[in-house]
Design goal:
The complex is a heterodimer of chains A (216) and B (194). Chain A has 216 residues and is mainly α. Chain A has eleven helices and two strands, in the order H-H-H-H-H-H-H-H-H-E-E-H-H. Chain A is globular. Chain B is an all-alpha fold and 194 residues long. Chain B contains nine helices and no strands. Chain B has helices spanning 6-16, 27-32, 37-67, 74-96, 98-104, 107-110, 115-126, 131-159, 171-185. The radius of gyration of chain B is 18 Å and the shape is globular. Chain B starts with 5 loop residues before the first helix and ends in a 9-residue tail after the last helix. Classes of the chains: A mainly alpha (216), B mainly alpha (194).
Chain lengths: 216, 194
């Protein structure tokens, strides 16, 4: 939306930014950030961000699935018949999610337990399907991979923003490190479901505010 | 109360562990389709119906997969079953009531990517519910989803008339209201402890 003014301001980045590969990568991180701008894939964003560690694991898992499915969809884009494309995308995504599910289970049973069903639910994350349909099915493997990395990075960033705030306020820690002296009164509401809604609303208001200020 | 009793399963799925407000499942339609009470209740009914059918199918599939010893196929087969159920429901509604089909519009096919449905199938599997328990669980979850959606739609219809600061308008406002609704639903959490 405000990409033009961004470019004028950051003259230093202009040359780098004008290359299409950088652009495909960067748009997911900032301009079209899946969490804050597109508001896609909200279920995991709200559900597993009660600690920063969960948020990081979820972001990485989603990025992996996004990258692999984007690459595969892009490779197969000329072979998949148009009528069954959505079904094929879902099957591709489900296969990679199964891999991630077993991978996390083998790395850390504890993490697998705290993320619970939300690893399997990456299948129905609208972000992944929408990237497959809107980008990977029309572009080359290189750009699809960059798009996936950018979008995954943006998603990870969004998850971390929420997870960090909720963990700091809700339990007084960050990545399980004690931040405050022992007298700190935790805001229990932040680790409860309601805290997820409030934190995301807070970030959205903050972003609206910066946008307003840029315009005026 | 016995946690395996049918009454408890229903109340737990619809109120105590409401799918939308406590588990964050089905947030996309919750944010997208909760503008008007009429659409919201129809969407809720459609989702409940798909939940019921896919819950029965998921139970059967889980049983079969255990028989042939292939649990890693679970996720893939669940999503395929849900997608085809939605397709069937779509064809059925189109044939039986074209008016309702037009009213639901794009939301009908989008039920496939509603995480509440897949979440329901996964939860009932991990809780080891039998056939009847699964059906009641699906009914409860569907009722809870409809309730959250209709409540939210009612609030949003009122908010349209209110004078809201420009900064908060849009998604942020809906999220704030959802947070307060979620806090209110926490009041139900004492229900099952007696």
């Amino acid at each position: 939306m405000s990409s033009m003014s961004d470019k004028e301001r950051l003259g230093f980045w202009e040359e780098l930014k004008s290359s299409p590969s950088t652009n495909e990568f960067l748009k997911g991180i900032w301009k079209d950030n899946p969490v804050f701008v597109q508001v896609l894939g909200m279920c995991p964003v709200l559900a597993v961000t009660n600690t920063a560690e969960n948020a990081l694991a979820m972001g990485l898992a989603t990025t992996f699935v996004l990258l692999m499915s984007n690459v595969l969809v892009s490779l197969l884009r000329n072979f998949i018949p148009k009528q069954v494309r959505i079904a094929s995308y879902i099957l591709i995504i489900a296969s990679f999610v199964t891999i991630v599910d077993y991978l996390i289970q083998s790395v850390s049973v504890e993490l697998h337990k705290s993320l619970g069903a939300f690893i399997s639910l990456i299948v129905v994350n609208c972000l992944i399907l929408s990237r497959a349909e809107a980008f990977a099915s029309k572009n080359t493997v290189k750009y699809s991979a960059l798009d996936a990395l950018g979008m995954g990075g943006g998603f990870l960033l969004g998850l971390l923003c929420l997870g960090a705030v909720r963990e700091i306020l809700g339990s007084g820690t960050l990545f399980s490190l004690q931040l405050f002296p022992s007298g700190f009164q935790e805001w229990i509401v932040m680790i409860l479901p309601a805290g997820g809604f409030f934190t995301l609303a807070g970030w959205l208001i903050l972003i609206n505010y910066t946008k307003e200020r840029k315009l005026s | 109360m016995n946690t395996d009793s049918l009454g408890y399963i229903f109340i737990s799925a619809s109120l105590i562990n409401n799918f939308v407000l406590a588990y964050f499942l089905g947030i996309c339609p919750f944010l997208g389709v909760s503008g008007k009470i009429g659409t919201a209740s129809k969407m809720g009914a459609a989702v409940t119906f798909v939940m019921l059918i896919s819950s029965i199918c998921a139970y059967t599939i889980h049983y079969l997969l255990l028989r042939i010893n292939a649990p890693y196929l679970q996720l893939i087969s669940y999503i395929v079953v849900i997608a085809s159920t939605v397709q069937l429901v779509e064809m059925f509604i189109k044939k039986m009531s074209p008016a309702l089909f037009r009213a639901l519009g794009i939301f009908l096919p989008l039920i496939t990517t509603n995480c509440a449905i897949l979440g329901l199938a996964l939860f009932q599997t991990s809780k080891d519910y039998d056939m009847i328990q699964s059906v009641i669980y699906a009914l409860g979850a569907g009722t809870g989803f409809t309730l959250a959606l209709v409540l939210m739609a009612g609030l949003r219809e009122q908010l349209d008339l209110a004078d809201v600061p420009k900064l908060i308008k849009g998604t942020a406002l809906v999220l704030l209201v959802a947070g307060i609704l979620s806090l209110a639903f926490m009041g139900f959490s004492g229900l099952g402890n007696q």
